[in-house]
Amino acid sequence: MTADTEHKALFLGAGAEMQCGVGHFARLLSKAVEELHPGCCSTLTLTRTEGSLADIWRAVGAVDSVVCNFPIVAWKRVILRPLLALLIARLRRRRVVLVEHEWASLHRLRRLTYFPALLLANTIVMFSPLVRRELAGHPLLGWTASKCVLAPLPPNIEAPPVVGDSPLREQLATARGNGRLVLGHFGSIYPGKQPTALLDIAADLRDRGKRPLTVYIGSFIKALDNVEQEFYGRVNELGLTDDVIVSGYIASDAEVFGLFGEVDAFCYLLDEGLTARRSSILTCVQSGRPVIVTGPANPDEFDHHPRLRALINRGAIALVPRGSPPQTYADRIITALELPPAPAPFDFDGWWQDVARAIDAEL
User: Fold this and answer.
1) Among 65, 171, 250, 347, which has the highest number of CB atoms less than 10 A from its own CB?
2) Alpha-carbon distance 75 to 320, whole Å?
3) In whole angstroms, what is the distance from residue 15 CA to residue 7 CA?
4) What count of other Cβ atoms lies within 10 Å of the Cβ of residue 75?
């Protein structure tokens, strides 16, 4: 990318309506690439009221590349607009870079909307070898995996210098003061993260007399499944009605990290194991609290991501073998709390420079 062109890369966005992890990532990514080449990036906002056909045509014509992040939660009602932007880009001989975060964990109807984007992309940027293998195994679109490149995923949220207070933080602090173990889970709540699995771990800790209070710092993703109903059904089944809190969406990073400060340990039981695309887990690491996660399905999962591998080597992220029962996770949580905190210096800007350079290489 050269500085003699006013705008060379166009990033598709959805403005303030895109209140989700991928939406936040899209904004941070365009900012990071812009910092590499000031003046060479622009953003086109596509919503139900913004981004007409004429707007798309002009914006695409002024650049050499178009970058689009999927999945776009906020675009589920206007999914045709970003696809139209990608089609126009190809018709106008512009390069299309598709940033793909998930595949097999998506609802099958949402995956259908991705088909045109995968076909139109010149390059598909992914963050996990596992997700790339999932795409490669698709009977119709598996060949598009040959267009994939891997990039290191950074966390979306940086730990602020001063954390914020909230009624929920005070509630957690009171629980800890009363000797309860506060177990944390951060990020959007959807089936791919197996939110109910953590409930089984909490139940085991309860049976050991640890009096856990499990807090889900995030909100349920509205989709065609019944994840929220199933979640609360499992809560009732395990008798954890008074021992589980779901915070809902929290807009303030300072408030998020204020809650992190009252969590004793974070835990994620993932059927697929830890992958290099789990930004929420990287955010948790910045709290300095132990993070217990299912180990990766394949040994090469972090080969392209040395910073993430370093966190594991330092012990900031403790891996539990795949297939382990809830009791093993409970054991690991108890052990982690008995150990001194693992030093884990976190160069947030360096993480984003890494991914910006990876995307920049494809523009």
Assistant:
1) 65
2) 36
3) 19
4) 26
φ/ψ (deg, to 5) at 138: -75, 135
Helices (H), 37-143: 53-61, 80-91, 108-120, 129-136
Domain positions in the chain = 9-156+351-360, 167-345
Phi-psi category of residue 177: left, alpha or beta, with phi > 0 → left and psi -120 to 50 → alpha: alpha
Q: How far apart are CA 166 and CA 121, in angstroms?
A: 44
Measuring CA to CA, which residue among 94, 159, 102 is closest to residue 123? Answer: 94
End-to-end CA distance of the chain: 7
Q: Is 121:89 a contact under the CB 8 Å cutoff?
A: no
Q: How far is the C-alpha of 290 from the C-alpha of 219, rounded, in Å?
A: 22
The architecture (CATH level 2) of 9-156+351-360 comes to 3-Layer(aba) Sandwich (3.40)
Backbone angles phi, psi at 149, to 5 degrees: -130, 155
Closest CA to 128 of 25, 285, 272, 310: 272
Tell me the CATH number for domain 167-345.
Answer: 3.40.50.2000
Q: What is the pLDDT along the chain (363 residues), one digit of tens a residue?
A: 444 444 589 999 876 655 566 777 888 899 999 999 888 899 888 877 788 899 999 999 999 999 998 865 545 556 788 899 999 999 999 999 999 988 988 878 788 889 999 999 999 999 999 999 999 999 999 999 999 999 999 998 899 999 999 999 999 999 999 999 999 999 888 877 888 999 999 999 999 999 999 999 998 877 656 888 899 999 999 999 999 999 998 889 999 999 999 999 999 999 999 999 999 999 999 999 999 999 999 999 999 999 999 999 988 999 999 999 999 999 999 999 998 876 667 899 999 999 999 999 998
Within 10 angstroms of residue 188's Cβ, the number of other Cβ atoms is: 18
Same fold across 9-156+351-360 and 167-345: yes
Strands (E), 230-346: 244-246, 265-268, 291-294, 317-320
